[in-house]
Amino acid sequence: MLLSPGRVDAPAAQRNYRWIARRPDHRARKAATSTVPAPLGPTPHYTEIPRWGLLDPPPAPARTPERPLWGLAASRDVLLVVTALAFLVAACAEYGRYLILLRNRTKLIPSWLLWISDMSVWVFGVIAPLCALATALALTGWLIETRKARFAAEGRRDPRRRWTLILGCLVPGVNLIWPGVFLTELLGPAPDPRAQRAVRIWWAAWAVSGLILVAATLWRDASTLQAEADGVSFTAFSDLCAAGFVVLTLWTVRLLEGRDLRGEPRSAHRWVMAADPAEVVIAPVQPGAPASGQDDSERADSAGTGENTQEEVVAK
After folding, report:
1. What pTM did the predictor assign?
2. SS3 call for 265
3. Average of pLDDT values for 262-275?
4. By CB atoms within 10 Å of each CB, which of 35, 133, 160, 252 scores lowest?
């Protein structure tokens, strides 16, 4: 074995040799690998698309909390329209009966016409209040859910309990006062003037409608024929008032939602103050050249006396 020319105790950076560690059987292993190569075999591959990293499902949508009264409130607009039509038809039936009573003063009325009149008055006299009751339930559900969302947007809870809202809107007599209070609270501390005015109009119309309903109910107990006929006419008038109030209610709730009566988004109108133009629109008319017949002496006299030959033209 040849010795390295370097010093034995030289540091590792100055040595011209390095130590290599091998296994004792490295020569036999090298001869075996060079003489008998191992078969490579088939190329590794997947028999199907791997599912460990290629599946990327979209995130599941956030689950909205269940709102039990929202299903009833969703049918609010349909019930309002149906109720208005029911009261309108009930008013037509009452006016039809009133015309029959006027005709019956001088002539007999056929029995079939009386039967049609009685059935129409009775049927629509029942259908209209039932529709009004269903509409009141839907509006109460809408009020509860709208107040809940309104206060939740401010990070607060509705100070009114649910049963307080239900009883305040559905108990006769009490519901003439509290619905207006609940709607006023819904507007917030800085309400829109138009929405506030609409709520006040609706509140006053609601109170008047209650008084008209009480008067129409008491008038049905009249004893004389003329009073009964007047009661029929007043009942028809109360049905027309009820139909108009239902339309007013539909306009009010849609206005609170930022829509018009037809349900379209309400656009804001901006008024711009018009100012006078910075420049004169009609420029002053300059005088034309002097007539050819004017002699030089006249022009000289005018220039000497300092008379102004320009004429002012006023445009009207």
Report:
1. 0.63
2. strand
3. 67
4. 35
